[in-house]
Amino acid sequence: MKVISEVYWDKGGRTVNQDSVSLQQVSIRGKRAVFALVCDGIGGLQQGEEASGFVAERMTEWFYTEAIRMLRKKKGRKKIGRAGLRALYGCNGEMGTYAGRCGIKMGTAVTMVLISGGRYLSWHSGDTRLYRVNPGRGRKRMKQLTADHTADYRTLVRCVGSFPWKEPDVSGGRLKRNCVLLLCTDGFRNRVPEEKIGEALQPSFLISQEQMGKRLRELSAYGKRNGETDNRSAVVIKCF
Question: What is the CATH number of the domain that holds 54?
Answer without folding.
Answer: 3.60.40.10
